[in-house]
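Researcher: For the annotation table, I need structure tokens for Beta-xylanase. Please keep the output clean. Sequence:
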Amino acid sequence: QQNQNNGWDWNNQNNNNWNQNNDWNNWGQQNQNNGWDWNNQNNNTWNGVVNNDWNNWNQNNNWNQNNDWNNWGQQNQNNNWGQQNNNWNNWGQQNQNNGWDWNNQNNNNWNQNNDWNNWGQQNQNNGWDWNNQNNNNWNQNNDWNNWGQQNNGWDWNNQNNNTWNGVVNNDWNNQNQNNNWGQQNNDWNNQNNNNNQNNNNNQQQNNNSNAGSKDSLKGAFASYFKIGTSVSPHELGSGADFLKKHYNSITPENELKPDSILDQSACQQRGNNVNTQISLSRAAQTLKFCEENGISLRGHTFVWYSQTPDWFFRENFSQNGAYVSKDIMNQRLESMIKNTFAALKQQYPKLDVYSYDVCNELFLNDGGGMRPASNSNWVRVYGDDSFVINAFKYARQYAPAGCKLYLNDYNEYIPAKTNDIYNMAMKLKQLGYIDGIGMQSHLATNYPDANTYETALKKFLSTGLEVQITELDITCSNTQEQANLYEKIFKLAMQNADKIPAVTIWGTQDSVSWRREQNPLLFSNGYQPKPAYDKVMALVK
């Protein structure tokens, strides 16, 4: 910007760096006082160092040695800027002997095929008017962040915080990571699709960085929902490759249940009757595996009648103490949830905790409502369902952003129990505390049939909440019947994929299943695919 009417005066830039903040090292300085002399560049290239080393801009090497740019800027030959196959539309070829005439570009597109938005076409005869480019994007399709849009053209003296290509911190040395800036085939239409930004969000929602191939479960169903499995730490060694191939969600089978995370000794040493201390040590191996491999975590569970130590409900966290009051228990419940989410965030900052079962298996099978006090210490202390409301309230308060909160139960397809789950979910929804219902889906080939299961699914979907299939397995005596029911369940999930974000199989192979005698999973021992696996995969082929 030099107060002239004909745009950027290339012969009089007065030694101004093109981009001081980006350390372009005196862009175009050639030991003359008039800046970059476009009429006398000789054989100097735009950037002669392979690896895009902008600190040595203006070496005598080609712009990208491997890409053969045909001596860009050599004005006395008839070569196009790029090879003919690259269809740069004779960039700068204007039948003159001096290369690109910046004062007479006459509406030549820089690259029509690549949709560069008619670069420099502003209906003027004086070339690109740097003072009047207004709102023309340099390259909308490649998202150049509205290059130079500052209402008054590109202000070269005030670019400071404007990024040239949306690259965080304008780090040109790492702009394209491991790919050449000019691809081998010079395919500029795909320039922005080759990992040119480092995405550290290894979650992410569908974990595209861990999408998987079409011969894997997670790859085959990537456009529908996450595919998960339950895992025990002993499987993370020999089964690591299998897990990474097929799953983008993992549920620790036992290691996040209350009896695994509650730390009695730490609770007692604190001398505080209400501040529940937790430890993630038993889950550490699984959590680290998920974090390092970009696999999302499904947390399971906070409130459960089972696998919750009796001392957690007693005075001084002691096995011999009296049962505490509701007020004390509320504080213990809140601190358990708060401290668990805090530990996950602090110890595994890159881990995607995308959903959590806040309450698990609250109801009887016969429609009789919640479990009695004789079967649940939660009901023993509270006498009503207020602990459920409070648990979801605390989880909503402390859960990380994006973590969906679930009410999870089994035998959920029994009509009377379906109604109890539905009613509790609607109560929680009205309070704004819940995101979804978890259907454990522990099935058998003889019950329930697909129609019964679908009836329950539709009932839960009618709440307007998400539904996840959280612990799917199907016991059988006939592998073909098992395959048929797996196929039907997956079909139902696919038909409702807009409200079913994940399907989790409860186990990796039959030998580790809690129902191992009846071979309920997709893989037999040694991770060998069964007919059920083949049927499921055939749905997306």
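Researcher: And a one-line annotation?
Model: Residues 1-209 have pLDDT under 50 and may be disordered.
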